[in-house]
Amino acid sequence: MEEKDYSGFTPDYIDRLLPNQIFVFGSNTLGYHTGGASGTARKKFGAIWGQAEGLQGQSYAIPVDFGKGIRKDNEVKASVEKFIDFAKQNDKLFFFVTRIGCGIGGYRDDEMAQFFKQALEVNNICLPKSFVDALKGGEINYDLDRFIEAQDSEMYTYADALNEIKEGHKQGHWIWYVFPQIKGLGHSYRSEFYGIASTEEAKAYLGNPILGKRLRDITQAFLDCNNPSAFNILGFPDVLKVQSCMTLFDIVSPNDIFNDVLDKYYEGKRCEKTIRRLGVREEKNKNVVKLSRLTIAKDCTIMLSDYDKEVKMEPIIKAIYLLFLNHPEGIVFKHLPDYRKELVDIYQRIKPLGLTERAIRSIEDVTNPLLNSINEKCSRVRAAFMPEVDPLLLDQYSITGKSGEAKKISLPRDLVTWE
Question: Is the pLDDT of residue 273 over 70?
Answer without folding.
Answer: yes
